[in-house]
Amino acid sequence: MQVNTSRPPTTLERRQQILELLDEHGRLSLVDLAGRFGISEMTVRRDLDALERDSAVTRVRGGVIAVASRSSEPPYALRIARNGPAKQRIALAAAALIRDGETIALDAGSTVLALADALADRRNLTVVTPNLRAAWVLADNPDLRVIVTGGLVRPGERALNGVFSERAFEDLLCDTFFMGVGGVDPEAGFTEYTLDGTRTKQAALRSARRRVVVADGSKLGKIAFVRVTPIDGADTLITDAEADPAVVTRLRETGLEVICA
Which residues make Cβ contacts (< 8 Å) with residue 181, sequence separation at least 6? Predict the structure, then answer.
């Protein structure tokens, strides 16, 4: 990965780039990071301390290593800034599947939030969501009916999980559920990082006639901590054109419809 030097990155962009470098190399030194970004080692230490507090990296003597645990999810502020153009293309492709008059369920996550943005001016839709960020985007459109599930708020993500969220989906029947995930693998299926979030997704899957997963190419081939559903538990995957072609082929061989936006 080459660090963009056309302008100094913001703190958030720099920390995102550190995570991307760790994805490539597994381990980085303070000296290396300071040189790559043209900043002091003290500034690098502050970045690494912040990432470690968010359980995104593990500090070691003289540097940092990638978090190996499949239960460790990158902080939401970093995820929402990652792969923005790809998420927007995925969102537009997903929005094109929705017909007026449908009842849809929107999951938590940054890619689904991009879908909410794409639906902000639509009419005659009912939207059920545990995603407070998505609800906020849609709430002022009088031509949409927005239903928030209730539940315990997950900080950062601002997603609602727990028994109240699960019960809401047990009592509602939706046309389409748009689900975000932490990983997509032909053998492991669709996986996520948290148990509570997984239970809410599973309840929403049971409530919907059509199940669409939205995930940018960085999620393909990855396996997170908890299996949400096997590959045949979804009807369609919408990803981006940068997704690994070999993984896309293997997914299609399972019978899953894959749309590359």
Answer: 109, 190, 191, 192, 201, 213, 215, 219, 224, 228
